Amino acid sequence: MKFTIDTEENKAYLKELAQELLKFAVRFPSPGGSAYYLHDDGSPWVEKTLDNYETCRMVHSYCIGSFLGFPGSEELVRAGLKSLNGEMQDHLNGGWFTSIYADGTGVPGKLCYAHAFVILAASSAMLAGMEGARELFDKAVATFDQYYWDEKEGLSRDTWNDDFTVLDSYRGVNSNMHTVEAFLAAADVTGEEKYRIRAGRVIDHVVQWSADNSWRIPEHYTSDWIPDLECNRDRPDDQFKPYGATPGHGIEWARLITQWALSTYTDQPEKYGKYVEAAENLFLRAVKDGWSVDGARGIVYTTDWNGKPVVHDRMQWTLAEGINTSAVLYRVTGKPEYAAYYHDFLQYLEEEVRDHQYGNWIHQLDQHNHKLETVWPGKPDIYHALQSMLIPYLDPAVSVAVAVRNSITDSSF
After folding, report:
1. Phi-psi bin for 100: left (phi > 0), alpha (psi -120 to 50), beta?
2. For a pLDDT cut of 70, what percent of the chain falls above it?
3. What is the pLDDT of residue 58?
4. Quick one: CA torsion of 137, 138, 141, 142, rounded to 10 degrees?
5. Using CA atoms, how far apart are residues 266 and 272, in angstroms rounded to an integer?
6. Taking residues 311-320, what's their average pLDDT?
């Protein structure tokens, strides 16, 4: 029963794991506040670079922790904000480093992906009433508007050089997915609907591209937004730009599309229904192509354009999004198949992915569900996993931090 949605056992199970995750990552702050990459036992991996997006994810996660009453959350958020206002910020050229080396210098290149996460972290910190959060948010959106958001296209550009003088020709959907996540959070926290409108423009592109490609999302594009379906064929397990379709992204997009539609078209059932149908198509295509298709449980990392697995590894973030989206689609459609997927995903989590020795989840498994560390060594953060322990019982129309805060206020969580 603990894997069955809406049972008391399931609610207790998710609460237990959420607390376990928050306890696991408390050693993340470096002296400058940036997030250390974490070893399997949660100890800091001090030799590795310090990543912007990991720092932002920890700020966001412990803002949620503060709403849940997890001890020490505010101090951890302040540490992360110290970094985002300090060493992780490029005070010479503007914007934020993608990562910094041990000597404090920035890793070359300025990524949209990282800047979207700054907006998310700042939005959550504003919601938590953290000092300086509004100023961080204003600076983050100003930088994003200047360099990343393309108002004409209704999409985000991807990568600049260090001083924002050369824009790379690559365009990508992954950074746009996290742009949508950040914009929805910004809209919910600030009340500025322009961010929700922007999210919808991105979503319209992705829905159309997916519908034209059998609901497998083209991930990579040229500078004029023509799909590059052969990108990284020779490096199929690239950490951020893998070749082919990524079922986990189809699943994650399905949740974000549903959230946007719920918050935009609740009084227009025809339009709302169209986007929920698109979300269902994305989810069902992803699980048909990716879930337990190669002789073992798990969602494969990538497939080719006919749905055949390319990289068979299982990534923990994909499972987390499967838990999230199956629950959300069950909430909005009432269809029992989504509750069944939710049950199966949680059972797989407990039996294969959860680390019962140290806490957190194993971040990468191979085709046979043996631990693997080629893409994600260690356990860098808790962001995807923590959200998946909360979203199933939250308002699906609202971004995660806001929904948690609201759920605590009305005592429903």
Report:
1. beta
2. 99
3. 98
4. -150
5. 7
6. 97
**Which one of the listed residues 115, 312, 363, 384 is annotated catalytic?**
384
Q: Which residues contact 3 (CB under 8 A, 6 or more apart)?
A: 10, 13, 342, 343, 344, 346, 347, 350
Q: Tell me whether residue 384 is one of the annotated catalytic residues.
A: yes
205 belongs to the catalytic site: no
Token pair, residue 408, equals 């605590």
Q: Give the chain's end-to-end CA distance (angstroms, integer).
A: 18
User: Are 59 and 125 a contacting pair, CB within 8 Å?
Assistant: yes
Please say whether the beta carbons of 318 and 247 come within 8 A.
Answer: yes
The pLDDT tens digits for 297-313 are 999 999 999 999 999 99
* Structure confidence at residue 187 (pLDDT): 98
Q: Which of 249, 312, 343, 370 is the catalytic position? A: 249
If DSSP codes are grouped into helix, strand and coil, which group holds residue 375? Answer: coil
Phi/psi at 333 (5° precision): -110, -25
b (16+ CB within 10 A) / e for 224-260: eeebebebbeeeebeeebbbbbbbbbbbbbbbbbbbb
> pTM to 2 decimals?
0.97
What is the rounded CA–CA span in Å between residue 249 and residue 384?
13
Give pLDDT, residue 412.
39
Report whether pLDDT(157) > 80: yes
pLDDT at 409: 58
- Sequence-separated (6 or more) residues with CB below 8 Å from residue 329: 254, 258, 276, 279, 280, 283, 335, 338
Radius of gyration of the chain (CA): 20
How many angstroms separate the CA atoms of 260 and 298, rounded?
28
> Can you tell me the distance from the alpha carbon of 255 to that of 238, in angstroms, rounded to the nearest whole number?
24
Distance CA 38, CA 377 (A): 9
Helix 194-211, helix 247-264: angle, nearest 10: 130
pLDDT of residue 410: 45
Element (H, E) at 256: helix 247-264
Q: What is the pLDDT of residue 239?
A: 75
36 DSSP assignment: P
Coil, strand, or helix at residue 96?
strand
